[in-house]
């Protein structure tokens, strides 16, 4: 099908400044980790789930006053009892779920009366992640459900502003791998949703040109992979312990956000989050109150992680490298190790 041209009217753009944020535009999108969290809760509790699409979504935005939305305390309706419904919005694509089929149908009918919508039925795919449409841009979206691509795509993205022949060859190799593994994806299972288990790793000074490190982590909610990342660190660090600790601090911040999200969804965690790394020094620094001169420049990260450990929200533990899931997010692995992941 041909792509349709779309235009957007931005109201009250006088608040933007020329040369600062005049060309910036924003759309309401939901964070991928939020999508995974809600889907895991749905699968574990066997709730019904539906998908909707708003036609000409940007023509339905007429508001004459500021609108505030909040979830009513307790979610209790005298006629229905205690019920829960969640709506995930990504521009004009909607995922809708509720704790009962009756509530779900009632809310969908209410939306149909207000907006011209297409009912896509039971959820099949979301965000258009079904095939790779255009090279590197498509690969970026594909990493939402293919963590095995995260490191390779992150590396190739570093050179897309001025790609050379070796970079294009690497891109083609990634595309060939995707073509041969179309049956792979992220599968969700019914499991416990009371604990977070995290694996974090860092490839110290792994970049041959800048000697910056790459951090990676993966977060499990029960038996399901919930969130993951492969990202280049911004600063040069002089030891592997420093690089690993910065990675731990980043993932502890992610787990704190996920804990707050689960609490807002009325599914609070009952135990501390377990953070596994393969560096002994990092484990000691997370619990040892003594400050060393060589760790002064990562002092904020150290205090942040220690405060979370002291509060009982996080435990930093040692895990051998061979059992470390995050390795695939920080470095290229041998075929045998890659396939084992």
Write the layout of secondary structure elements.
Layout: H1 32-45, E1 49-54, E2 76-77, E3 81-82, E4 85-90, E5 93-98, H2 101-114, E6 117-122, H3 135-142, H4 150-157, H5 165-180, E7 196-203, E8 214-221, E9 224-232, H6 240-264, E10 273-277, H7 280-287, H8 299-310, E11 314-318, H9 335-340
Parallel strand pairs: 7-10, 10-11
Antiparallel strand pairs: 1-5, 1-6, 2-3, 4-5, 7-8, 8-9
What does this 3D model show about the protein?
- The protein is about 35% helix and about 20% strand.
- The mean pLDDT is about 80.
- It is α+β, with helices and mostly antiparallel strands.
- It has helices spanning about 30-45, 100-115, 135-140, 150-155, 165-180, 240-265, 280-285, 300-310, 335-340; strands at about 50-55, 75, 80, 85-90, 95-100, 115-120, 195-205, 215-220, 225-230, 275, 315-320.
């Amino acid at each position: 099908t041909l792509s349709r041209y779309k235009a957007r009217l931005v109201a009250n753009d006088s608040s933007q400044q020329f040369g600062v944020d005049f060309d910036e535009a924003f759309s309401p999108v939901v964070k991928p980790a939020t999508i995974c969290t809600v889907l895991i809760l749905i699968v574990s509790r066997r709730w019904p789930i539906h998908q909707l699409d708003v036609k000409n979504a940007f023509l339905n935005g007429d508001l004459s006053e500021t609108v505030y939305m909040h979830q009513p305390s307790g979610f209790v309706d005298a006629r229905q009892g205690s019920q829960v419904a969640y709506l995930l919005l990504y521009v004009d694509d909607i995922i809708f779920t509720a704790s009962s089929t009756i509530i779900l149908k009632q809310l969908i009918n209410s939306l149909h009366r207000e907006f011209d919508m297409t009912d896509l039925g039971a959820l099949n795919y979301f965000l258009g992640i079904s095939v790779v449409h255009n090279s590197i841009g498509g690969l970026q979206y594909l990493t939402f459900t293919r963590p095995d691509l995260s490191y390779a795509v992150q590396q190739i993205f570093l050179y897309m502003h001025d790609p050379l022949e070796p970079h294009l060859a690497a891109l083609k190799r990634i595309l060939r791998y995707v073509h041969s593994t179309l049956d792979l994806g992220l599968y969700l299972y019914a499991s416990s949703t009371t604990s977070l288990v995290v694996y974090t790793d860092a490839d110290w000074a792994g970049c041959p040109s800048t000697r910056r490190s790459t951090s990676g982590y993966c977060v499990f909610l029960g038996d399901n992979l919930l969130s993951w990342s492969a990202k280049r660190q911004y600063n040069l660090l002089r030891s592997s312990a420093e690089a690993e600790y910065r990675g731990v601090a980043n993932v502890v911040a992610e787990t704190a956000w996920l804990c707050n999200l689960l609490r807002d969804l009325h599914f609070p965690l009952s135990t501390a989050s377990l953070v596994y790394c393969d560096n002994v020094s990092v484990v000691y620094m997370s619990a040892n109150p003594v400050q060393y001169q060589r760790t002064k420049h990562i002092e904020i990260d150290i205090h942040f992680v220690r405060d979370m450990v002291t509060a009982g929200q996080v435990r930093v533990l040692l895990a051998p490298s061979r059992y470390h899931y995050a390795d695939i997010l920080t470095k290229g692995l041998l075929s045998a190790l890659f396939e084992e992941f």
